[in-house]
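Weekly sync, protein design subgroup
Attendees: M.S., D.O., the rotation student, P.L. (late)

Item 1: inverse folding check
M.S. brought a backbone from last month's batch and wanted to see whether the design step gives back something sensible before we order anything. D.O. pointed out we never logged the input encoding, so this time it goes straight into the notes. Structure tokens as presented (331 positions):
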């Protein structure tokens, strides 16, 4: 009987010792090897958005005569999306070009006049030099009574007339130079007018400002187009983003540049890779049209997750979820 009680005490002691050892290990092992707790990812929901441009013709007003694309068409940057009736604007450029040619011809005519005046001045200079020699000889001869005083006076008059002719032709050269400068200024004005009207003519074509997909066609052939009249809405789909809202308790666990896995109902088996590119610095009340993945709370922060979309599978307005690995609270 005593042996039986002894064995019972030994067994109970062993059990208690095992329990104590297990408790000690439970307390010490996490401290030695670190705790391995499952980190719950932050999941947000929202809608896909993309850059949209409402396109219209500018600086001109005329009926649409060319409108080849419908909604859903992919267009490359620079593609002509629409054209208005450009006959008036094209005719104006033809008038401007003709006027420029007239002004160029006027410059050449004035240059010829200037050249002729310069040659006249050269001839006048030679004539004046000769008349001065004639008068000098007549003056000497008249002093020795070889020629009459009248002959000397005539030589004097001829010299003065030659000098007057030279002065006149010098003035004509100056006038011709001014005419050339004025004609050249008219050429520049005509060229600027032509360039302006050529620019206006270019506005009769509406070109795609970037590669994109036509989301809305807002006009039809024959419709009067002009500034402020929408013709197309163009979406840029190569790079889209998810607009979502994060609950206030989770905002401290998200950082700019963090990777996010994005999924949609339309493509449930495909995961799109994105990054957090914007975190609103201000809290706002939960939008009525937005439901977060977690339980709704009063205050949320708007975030933006950029996503490459080369296949254009993600479309504006498409609902999507994003899973973000939270950062440690100490970071």
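Designed sequence read out in the meeting:
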């Amino acid at each position: 009987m005593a042996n039986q009680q002894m064995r019972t005490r030994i067994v109970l002691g062993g059990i208690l010792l095992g329990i104590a050892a297990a408790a000690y290990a439970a307390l010490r092992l996490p401290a030695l090897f670190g705790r391995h707790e499952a980190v719950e990812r932050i999941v947000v929901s929202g809608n896909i958005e993309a850059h949209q441009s409402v396109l219209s013709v500018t600086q001109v007003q005329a009926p649409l005569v060319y409108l080849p694309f419908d909604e859903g068409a992919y267009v490359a940057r620079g593609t002509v999306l629409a054209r208005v009736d450009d006959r008036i604007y094209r005719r104006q450029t033809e008038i401007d070009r003709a006027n420029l040619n007239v002004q160029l011809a006027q410059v050449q005519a004035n240059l010829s006049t200037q050249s002729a005046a310069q040659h006249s001045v050269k001839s006048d200079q030679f004539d004046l030099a000769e008349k001065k020699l004639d008068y000098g000889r007549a003056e000497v001869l008249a002093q020795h009574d070889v020629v009459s005083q009248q002959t000397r006076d005539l030589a004097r008059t001829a010299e003065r007339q030659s000098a007057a002719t030279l002065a006149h032709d010098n003035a004509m050269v100056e006038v011709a130079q001014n005419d050339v400068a004025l004609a050249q200024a008219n050429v520049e004005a005509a060229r600027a007018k032509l360039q302006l009207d050529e620019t206006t003519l270019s506005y009769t074509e509406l070109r795609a400002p970037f590669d994109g997909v036509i989301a809305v066609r807002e006009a039809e052939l024959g419709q009067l187009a002009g500034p402020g009249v929408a013709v197309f809405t163009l979406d840029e789909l190569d790079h889209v983003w998810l607009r979502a809202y994060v609950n206030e308790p989770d905002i401290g666990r998200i950082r700019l540049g963090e990777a996010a896995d994005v999924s949609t109902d339309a493509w449930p088996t495909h995961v799109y890779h994105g990054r957090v590119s914007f975190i609103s610095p201000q809290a706002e009340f939960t939008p009525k049209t937005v439901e977060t993945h977690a339980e709704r709370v009063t205050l949320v922060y708007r975030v933006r997750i950029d996503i490459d979309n080369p296949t254009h599978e993600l479309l504006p307005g498409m609902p999507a979820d994003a899973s973000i690995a939270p950062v440690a609270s100490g970071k």
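Discussion: Residues 50 and 200 are 31 Å apart (CA to CA). The chain has four domains: 1-36, 42-52+236-324, 54-85+205-225, 88-202.
Action: P.L. to compare against the previous round before Friday.
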